[in-house]
Design a protein that fits this description.
about 160 residues; alpha+beta; 3-stranded antiparallel sheet
Length: about 160
């Protein structure tokens, strides 16, 4: 894999992914809709130590989440674009990189669609795509993430 780079709108925050993501989630929950100002959020989940900051460091803004565990959103200090988040479950160990901030966002289409119960009715999920009305369970991880991704995720979560 060639390292992929990305950044914010003004270019102050730049980063490089040092490996492919574990999984790419397309989240249709109302919180992601609200936060993104769109119909869903597309997040490439990767180990935080595999995200190399190339420019200015993003600023951390802690926000509430529906899970009650909170979310840390890392934004450019100048243009305020969200470049990635850390969620309560995995904490700082995993970064949920906003795919739209990659220089080549087409490189990572979604592996799975989650919280489709709140999917906007005009958003079509491609036939054959993995999708869940809520979130998937631990038993679904090997099928969705693949063997390598499941092992990486297990390592992050101490399993």
């Amino acid at each position: 894999m060639i390292a992929l780079e990305g950044g914010c709108a003004c270019g102050e925050v730049r980063y490089r992914l040092l490996s492919a993501p574990i999984v790419v989630n397309c989240c249709h929950c109302r919180s992601c809709q609200r936060e993104s100002g769109s119909a869903f959020a597309l997040n490439a989940v990767i180990e935080t130590d595999r995200v190399e900051t190339l420019g200015a460091a993003p600023e951390r803004i802690d926000t509430p989440s529906d899970s009650g565990k909170g979310q840390a959103i890392l934004r450019c200090p100048s243009c305020k674009v969200a470049v990635w988040s850390h969620y309560g479950g995995a904490g700082n160990a995993a970064s949920f990189v906003r795919v739209g901030t990659l220089d080549d966002p087409a490189a990572y289409p979604p592996d799975v669609h989650v919280f489709t119960v709140s999917r906007r009715p005009w958003v079509a999920i491609p036939p054959g795509s993995e999708s869940f009305e809520q979130f998937y369970s631990r038993k679904d991880v090997p099928r969705i993430y693949g063997e390598d991704g499941a092992a990486r995720w297990g390592s992050l979560m101490g399993r």
